[in-house]
Amino acid sequence: MMLGASAIRVGAQDRATGKTRFGFDQGREGDLFLVCVRAAKGPARIKSMDYAPALAVPGVVRVFTAGDIPGQNRLGIIPVSKDQEFLAQGLVRHYGQAVALVAAESREAALAGARAVRVELEDLPGVFDPAEALAAGAPLVHADRAEGNLLKENRIIKGDAEAALARSAVLVEAEYAIGRVEHAALEMEGGRAYYQDGRVIVKACTQNPHYDQGDLALFLGVEPDRVRVVQAETGGGFGGKLDVSVQPYLALAAWHLKRPVRMAYTREETFLATAKRHPFRMRYVSGADEEGRLTAVKAELLSDTGAFASYGLAVCMRAAVHATGPYLVPNVAVNCRMAYTNNTWNGAMRGFGVPQVALAHEGQMDALAAALGMDPLELRLKNALRADQATATGQVLKSGVGLTQCLERLRPIYEAWRHGLSHGGWHRQGVGLGCMYYGIGNTGVSNPSTAQMEWLPDGRVVLYTGVAELGQGSDTVLRQLAAQRLGLEPEEIDLCRGDTDRTTNAGASSASRQTYISGNAVLNAADNLEELLLTGARELLGARHLDLDLRGRLILEKGGQGRTLEVKEVARFLASEGREIKAGGRFDPNFTALDPATGQGRPYAAYAFAAQCALVEVDTASGLVKVKEVAAAHDVGRAINRRAVMGQICGGVMMGVGMALMEEYQQGSTDNLQNYHIPTAADAPRVTPLIVEEPEETGPYGAKGVGEPALIPTAPAVAGAVSQALGRPMRRLPLNLERVMEAITTAEDQQP
Amino acid sequence: MSSFIIARDLPEALEIMGRGEARIIAGGTDLMIHLRQARLSSRQAPPVILDVSRLPELQRLEPGAPRPFVGAGVTFHRLESDPEVARHLPLLAQAASMVGSLQVRQTGTIGGNVANASPAADGMTALTALGARAEIASLKGYRECSIEELVTAPNKTTLAPGEIILGFTVEEAPPAGQVFAKVGRRQAVSVARLNLAISLDPQLGDPRIALGACFPSPRRLRDVEKLIRQGEPGRQLWQAAGQQAAQHFTDVCGWRSSAVYKAPAVTRVTERALERAWQALGGAA
User: CATH second-level architecture of A12-124+184-272?
Assistant: First the structure.
């Protein structure tokens, strides 16, 4: 099997035939079922809570409240902003927050019990808009925070943006906005936990089992080794399963009751009680010289973390870092603020703030192109970052800068679409572009991954990895990488994945980091395993300085002649000495922390680049937009598995179409998939994935990541296409019927 | 726990309904959602669920008859794929093809669509424009009424306990210039933001227009029909009719926030549908 070929996905057959048991499907006969009691309003003070009526419901075993939490009732992924209470403690900070947890012999009994709990709530003044939250005198979401409702402010300062703007030949200024988006993973959150030998074992869907273990230990007030987390097969994440969800409830109930317990969110709970994509309001001023070279970009960004921090710090910083887009911008002034409100919380979702800022930086490029009378593609090409140029944070990129290649691959398609546009009585077509870059891994912090590889005496080879597989394909890709390094077929490698007892921390399956970071860790483990085997071979042969090579299951003397050994002989030898044939690997990308005042630094070791082009048709009678085609050129460094890369691209485009046209979470009115619309097959454009391979020197065989980049350019490209079709810039997403109709009628009214 | 009864014949179904505690299930595409909501909120489920989907009376489909008849238990999929429906009642075929998803259309029925009485029900708007009459049976006998008389408000009908809709008759096959238009928030599987059923005859002597998802109950736009009867076919008339339709809508519903979208959309979608209906009759665009 060649690297880059389309290896069949691990577990594909089980998924296709319905055999896979996801976190949601965990549970056996006799398990207790857990249901949360959720506050019917917020913010509010809990005046009283009476759960005696719940205990009177047949089948109800126990009702837990915050007082039953043995450890810390403040959890969260980022160590410095752990603030999420899993059961409200006197105060309800947002509508729908859990105030109690009911355990019962059946789901029906648990639901009935949850409804029987009497909670008396007294309204408190709340704040639901981030600008209002930052105004003087706003009600505080967390009264104990010295910074008030401001979670974080990030600045990126390079050169002198004000002066450069003043000198620019053209200036464009505009505001952009995007609402909250739900991940809508196919699988709702679910899992099972039990108590055994003084430990709690939690098997649930997750994107980060080792983080879960640490927070559950905090929650229970025990050492991490008292908690074992096993990642259940996970039916999609997109960032929505990075926060813990059902896990703390499962752990708490199993810990107290010493009985197996099960919990599964309804679709309504998934909407209400998991994070959403952060909404952003963005004000941009961009300048260019007469030739269309960017002179400066100034951006003011404001977002809302909701009642809890979750991934807010990361999104705030990443949005700021990426705010100017994949272009050479000599002067930069970005300010990004993230505020607490009493909304349900926002958190990680595919792209961490970059899809939001991409709407703005791409809208600005289109506006500049219009102001300059330039073709939007030429303007982007002229400003595209190239190798040896510096990003907004002053990081000079040495390799893996593939944006110009992406744009050149798009060019013929883009030109053909532009020339073939059709406008009829009731429809108008348009073509738009979206570009992006995306730093792989966490921003300006250490985010290592570890892995182990073992050669068992019976000849089997095992890869141990903490990487959570969510459907993105990490099982397949990591096995391909290990096999490639050792000269084996992927099928010869067994996988042991996502179990805190048997694997070590690989960090989150987020930030498009696992192929690059964990891929490198796996290669490092494979190298160390090879070294271990070769050392054993030299000992067996009694030749300490022999130059040997591992080729699959053979060990050869370098240079062609000489001795050949079978690995199994070495394995037998090492086993006879009682030595384990297991080697670890580790990788942490090279980075520097960002300067707190200027945001300058090298926040990532590698960047992915992409450009997409969308062809849309607007129905001018109804305002409904159809995305007909998307061509998506992605610089992935090196495609380890072509089919998986194409799958990510097509899936990302679909998610981008939803974000562009129809998805907007509104608390209280979009509570399930009946009234929160995601694209159907009929809404799917024809997608042409174009894989660009500009090798990243530090990547595993040159690979970077594609999970989030796949989504990021789509919405800006669609917005640009609709703007072109209607002759008016569309700067607020989603482009729903109302916004499009307003643009149609306004454009007509303004015609002479 | 509800008991589930599959009625073998109409007398048995009427007898069970006569006891007054049964809810009817046909395709179940609405009822199943209600039952789930009831379960999650610990509300009582109906004590008896009566499956009428196998009653032959409700499966009758005679679109080509002198008085066309569509059984209440006929699924949308049958309506969208039956060539006789396409020939004689194209409006109904078009409306049926735009309901929900294929899965929903394979089980959801025209009778259930009307009985559920959602203001956005596509089948209901088409039947309203066709001037269809509902045939209703109970132990007390038969009655007939128009769709407007049957559905009076969102999820409210004049169906008495014990009554079953057998089907819908159309007085005479309407003319061929029929267009059903639907606007949803995506290309498929969406609830109508508005839907519109139009039929035109070459003399413009009997134009029929029903606008759905805009009013609490099904409604013919008789003022727009009158305007068309008195006008000369052509772009100006279609435009004027579109504007009159929007006027009708805002007169009835007032300028609510939704009107900012719906008023121009009704204007434009009506104009386009009339244009297409006229083209279907062989008229110039």
Answer: Alpha-Beta Complex (3.90)
